[in-house]
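Exercise: predict the fold of this chain.
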Amino acid sequence: MKRKILALMLTASLAAAALTGCGSDSSGTGSDTSAAGNTGAETGSAEADLKESELVTLDVVMMSSGKNEPDITEVENAMNEILEEKFNVNVNLTFIAYASYAEQISLMLSSGEGADLLAVYLTPLPTCASAGQIIPLDDLLDQYGQGIYEQLGDYIECGRVGDSIYGVTTNRDLANSQGFAYRKDIADEVGFDADSIETLDDLERELLKVKEAYPDMWPVAVSAGENIRNWGWDPLGDDTVNLGVLSDMAQEPTVVNLYETDQYKDLANTMYSWMQEGLIQADAVNTTEVATTLMTAKTAFGYFTNLKPGFAEETSSSLGYEIGVVDIIDALGCTNNVSRATWTISSGCDHPEAAMKVLNELFTNPDLSNLYMYGIKGTHYKVLEEGGASNGQSIITWADGLDASTSNYRKSATWLAPNQFIGHVWEGSAPDVWDQQRAFNNDALKSVAFGFTYDSSAVTNEVAACTNVVAKYHNALLCGALEPESTLEQFNQELYAAGLQNIIDEKQRQLDEWLAAYGN
């Protein structure tokens, strides 16, 4: 079958932000094709019964860096050796760049062509399910996906739309803590005491040290006009506009208007005060640059971000200088953290059973998973320490003479692969980074609505109108560019005029029904 290789070159900053940003993981693994293949999780059937009667070829689609990958065929062939022997299945791999991923996936799903097994990202899962573009997975998971259940546990419920599971999340950081990342060299020079920081007031005290020592350096940088994405609320599916949320760490099942809460007012007032003190980048609302670009140029000290285990090490490796982090808001697990990136089976797939077998194998077979994520040992990567990772896999790095710009099968967007937790660990990350991330996910406080997926189709017009209102005020308020007392009143008046109450009522209705059916 003709392979579709869809790539669009990105600017360096966009690629870096897309592949290592919020809710993502750019550290990861590779594959050793000389090792004896791990057969993956047994599903209760004899292996012979898992084989397709005739050779099946599946189109498998995932995001990449945007760089053309000439060695895709070599990796396909290595993967197909494993899959053909076990299932009589081959795969054609398609990689689509971040900038065009949502558009191309939409076209593929609408046409029913070019994608059998695919990662849905940047497009709401309920949208695809409601349009009939993807199929329910419950029966297929029960029959062929026991390894997926074992790997994901309760997180599998976050792919539920209505009564059925339509998507399977990836093993990555599935919760978010919130905090601040900063240049460690500047921090050490000015006496920035990270250990003393527990609140925003504490952070302000330490940032003033930076301001005093470096008056021409912004203590807080902003990425493309956004300062803070979340500060301890469950957005119930729309995390950039927050049209009806569960506030204050989401332990009560009452949907409220975030922009009327004390939680939001206090945050906006703090950011406004910081802007007046010169702590936040002056052109924050209008900037198109990302914070790390300014930090690299030493025109900024740090930025607010969502955090996970290994974030400092991973970001330090990417930027080329040491990064420190401070956690301020504890980790919170919300459905949108999980369901924003899910593996699905297209309604155009002629062999859904075979697709589920392959997906289960990607979740449970380290050799196959490592091949998919990082290519071939000796060609694309080399082993630094055999068995050096806590999961029994190896510590790896680029093959001799290669780096991210020269490899023909680049390590990128591995957090969107089904299961990086069973694979090798890339040089620079802790040997137990996957154990740390799994524990982080399991230990995070869960929203009372964890597992609930909101469908906005009944209030589409209201969502569009309110989204426009949010765009006028929200980022500007959290950048400290607008005076909160008078602005919040006008902001909320316009939201209600645009139909916010209808959205809140619809969310509450759906949440109440979900809690009645699935809540504890």
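Check your answer against the key: The chain is about 40% helix and 15% strand.
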